[in-house]
Amino acid sequence: AKPSAISLIPELQPSPSIELSTIPQIDPDFSKAWIYPEQIEEVSFTQIRESVDSEAIARYAELMQSDLWDFERSPIPVLFEHENRYLIGDGHHRIEAARKIGADILCEIFPAVQIEDALIYSIKAIENTNHGLPLRPKDQRKRIVMFLDLLDAGKCSIALPEDYKEWSSRAIAT
After folding, report:
1. Is the distance from CB of 113 to CB of 16 less than 8 angstroms?
2. Which of 68, 99, 105, 109 is 20 to 30 A from 154 in CA distance terms?
3. What does the pLDDT look like over 117-161, one tens digit per residue?
């Protein structure tokens, strides 16, 4: 049997965390703002890819500079604001392309209770299955390791469906 969705539930102690199912979805009526990329922290801990794709960044930057990029096209990059810092939840390559050419970029902005909110969103983000750069196997592995590190740190926990013991390795991997 193929597993149903694994839901994350918050760990009550020692620090607050969020339930993955409560992470904001992209909402067209939520806070959007044009952000200068230099205002966005260049932190690698939210990047779920093993390495960034420099060619994709260059391609995106060229399209942006040539005025062929639709900055309002969905999905737009997602930022989390934590202690007056913008952390990337989704859209690393798009933001880096805008940074490269010095262009403002339209972003969806959500408040972060804790710094890990951006990381949890990044791990959960599945937007790349519908657009952009697909995740490679090594990216998927890094994503899993990052999630397990969050579990070990007590920043989140998981609730498995009752039938999880019946899952095959192939079902778990998909």
Report:
1. yes
2. 109
3. 888 888 887 655 566 778 889 988 888 888 888 888 888 777 767
